[in-house]
Design a protein that fits this description.
Layout lengths: L10 E2 L3 H17 L5 H14 L1 E3 L2 E5 L3 H17 L8 H11 L1 E3 L1
Antiparallel strand pairs: 1-2, 2-3, 3-4
Length: about 110
């Protein structure tokens, strides 16, 4: 029975100092740009998280960019205006889908 268990592992190997550092840097970027730079800050955080993640012993990589996310933000912002805010219900799902779309095995 124990021989049938898959011995592959999935784990996150980032540390607390890296976590704090990347979030502080992202916050500084976002605040200093009056949140226009938020897409770039979010990509920095996502890239760090994905860089430190393995699934079935395979390292992940993130290829999204702040410019790509900024374009999506503009589109999503306009959709929120057109729908009088109703589209905001879909934003967390859209962000997750965008993040997953740009996450691959290294």
């Amino acid at each position: 029975f124990m021989a049938d268990i898959d011995k592959s592992r999935s784990e996150f190997d980032g540390g607390v100092l890296g976590y704090i550092g990347i979030h502080l840097l992202a916050m500084i970027v976002a605040v200093c740009t009056l949140f226009i730079g938020y897409p770039w800050a979010a990509c920095m955080v996502y890239r760090w998280e994905i860089k430190h993640t393995t699934i079935n012993d395979r390292r992940l990589t993130f290829d999204g960019s702040g410019a790509q996310l900024f374009g999506s933000y503009i589109k999503w912002f306009l959709l929120c205006i057109i729908t009088i805010g109703i589209y905001t219900l879909w934003l967390p799902i859209k962000m997750t889908a965008w993040k997953v779309k740009h996450t691959h095995f290294a």
